[in-house]
Every structure is written in structure tokens, then in C-alpha cells.
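Input chain follows. Return C-alpha cells only.
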Amino acid sequence: MLEAQAHLRLKQLLKQGGGSSWPHHLTLTRLVARSLRRGDHSLFPVSATVDRPWLLGLLLPVLMANHPVLLVASEALQRRLLQRELMLLAEVGLRRPLWQGINPPHEPGLWMVSPAELVQIWRSGNLGEYQLVCAEAEELEELLRQGQAIRLTPKDWDQLGRAKPELAQTLLVLHERLSRQLLNRPIGRSPSVAIAAEQEAPLRLLLQGVEGLPEPWQHWCKSHSQQWTSWAITEPQLLQWSLERQPLKPLESLNGLLLQRGAILVGSLMPHGKRLQDLGLREPVLVPLHTPERQTAIPLYAPRLQALPNSPLFPEQLLSQCRRLVLGQTGLSVVLVDDNPLRQWLTSALAAEFGRRVDHEQTAPESNGVICCSWSWWLAHHQQLPAPGQLIVGLLPIASLEDPLTAARVNDLRQQGRDWFRELLLPEAIEKLQRGLAPLRVREAGRLAMLDGRLRGRGWGQRVLEALEPFEPLERLLPF
């Protein structure tokens, strides 16, 4: 039986010193082997960690199984697997034919693809009977959404005009009309501008029924539904813009992807409410494998009288608190703020105080440096940095309604009469917060500062505090 064989093989490997000390290796291996054998939909939530120590327990039964398996992984994770886990398993005799790219393998084995490649494979009908395994469940929705994204650049408009010369003049008129609407406006905080359905309607009517459209125009015409949203990415300095279109629910737009097919998802996500359906899972095997990565409580500084982010006093209070936190700090300080203008202003103000110690989104800081960055940058680059001495959360990672995609997703829930904040924005923010804190949990001496006044001033702040446990409140700031 696959479960018993995988359990025994992993136990031998762990005794030889392979892998990490993660306590749920054997449990995860048995569960994955069982799901592969039965073809189940399975979801295994794990604690947010720095380096995904559970990958060994996930991959071992995949290599031992006789079932064709398609492993969905981002390019960064693929490099990690090829250089570490798969190499380690190959050294102990666990090998299986490995295929990459969108072309179907010649024989059953392990097929490793990116989310964008998975979309192409599904659309071409070449997925066959492959079961799906994803080790980045917390990012699966966003990765698949980006994999299905359709972008129309100025070059695509020129290409369409050359391919369909009878439409060239009308296309030029429509492009100029959209350009005036998008570029003749004050430069805002974000280059993204929402596009209403009525603004796209003339272009869609023009292309309706036209045969032989070049890509990406064919996919753009097929994506017309309420489950897709569009926006423009403007470049006012160049007087250019691109049209972006993405699905609100990426797995629903890949209709049938998980039907009659096994799927195993592992990641640091919270499977509450509608989330399982949003992931495309129906009656999944759900086994949480959470592990406290830090035995001691995190020192938490969260002032009770901090101003709210929409207050005119907030920037100066944030700067004042950051000065106090950085002063005397001997380790790396990371300041997390998603608001671009505020972050740039804060970086300049801190650099005026602390000089070359302060960097903006740089991966080579000084030992006692200060990095001001966005949440997305931190999540993508924290493995290239030393463990921080302190994390300073200037703003909670709550998506802004100024973002057209977020606004469209919120509007979809509003129309259903659902609580869009507590069902969508808050759970996603807590997940991102926990992933961002993973490097701090590795360092026993690190501290956390939460300077967003909503943590204490809003009722939902208690849910955020519960997600930070265990923590030890710091009523006063003392230098380390």
C-alpha cells in the first residue's frame, strides 16, 4: 500500500538526517499518499514558514506513486525543488521521469509546470488524467489569475490593424477615444484605472463575429462576462496605456479543471466559509497541520493612541514611532507600508535622520539597516535577507478599493449581499500578515511593532491580534 511504503521510506530518510525537524512529515506523507491513491480533493493548511520545510513529505509519495501527477509551482519554487528536494530524494534512489513545459509527457511521470502553463495545458485539452498537486495553496488563486491575465498593449493594436486592414481606421478612432478618457485625467496614486463595460462595448461590438483574430484578441473576446474585470495601466509620461483583463474567480473561469480529477493543496491559508468553494474544492479532505514555529511569545508593540491611516496626523505619528523603534536597534529593521506615496515620503524622512542605513526595497542592507518596502516585495524577497531584528507594520496589508481588481471583487460580493470586508479583505490581510511574520518567528529575539491605528480602533482588530498569538505586549519601548 502506497501509504505504508511512503511512511516507511520517509522514516528511514529522516533517521539518516535528511530533511528538517518539521513534526508533521510522516502525517503529511501518509495523507498525500492516501489522496493520490483515492483521487480525492485534499487541503492541508500548514503554518506560515520561511522555507516550506514540509516539501519533502509532500514530494516523496508523489515520486513513489504510479499515478500521473502534475505539480503546479511558481518559477521560484520550481528552482528550489530542482536544486534541493528533488536532488536529495534522487540521492537516496527516489527518481521519477520529470517533465517541464506545456508539451504533454511521452510517458506518465511527474509533470512540473507554472500556473500560466497550467492554463495553456487546460485550454489545449492536454491535461488528461493527471492529478494536481500544489504546494502554494495560499497563492494559487492569485497565480492562476495572473496566468489567465490578458493584456492588450499598443503593439497588439498595431498587429490587429495589420491583420484586419478593413478595421484599421475604426480601431484608430476607438483607440484615440479611449486614450483621451484615460490620459486626460489628473495623475493619481495608482497607474491603474478601472474600465467600465460601456467603455469597452464599442470595441467588442466591432470585433464580434470577426474570424481569424490574432492573439491575445481571441481570448479577450471570449472573456466577456461578469466574472471578468478590466482596467487600464497608464503611462502618462509616454502617453501610452495597456488594457488588462483578469477573472474575479480564476478557478471558476477554468470550468471543469478539478472535476473528476484528484487535487492536493498544501499551504498557509485559512480555509473558512466560501474559501473552499473559491478554490474549486468540493467536500475536500481537510486536515490542518499547524505548528507553532516559535515557542516564546513575540514582543508586540501596538500603541493604543495611534492615529487612523486616514487621519492627517497619521504620517507624522508613523514617522515619530519609526524613529523611536529604529533608534538603538542593532539588527535589521523592516518597515512595511503598501501606500506608495506614504512609503516614499517615510523612506526619505528616515534617511534624513539615519543616513545610509535606510534603503527602499533593497536586498543588500547594512547589518543595522532599515528597509522600507511594500508587503508584496517583502513576501517575494525576504528569503534573500537576514532574519529581521524587528518588523514595523506601518499599514496592515488590507487591499485598497482604489485597486480596480479589488473593487470589482468587492462589488461582486456586495451584489450577493455578503459581508465583503470580513469574508474577503480581512481574511486575505490576515493570511498575508502571517506569511510576512514568518521570518520573525524564526528569530527568538525579534520584535513586532503594529502602528496601524485600526488595530486598536476597530472591532475587527481583535481578529488580527488573535492571529498574532502567542505575543507579549510591550507597553514601553526599550532599546535592544
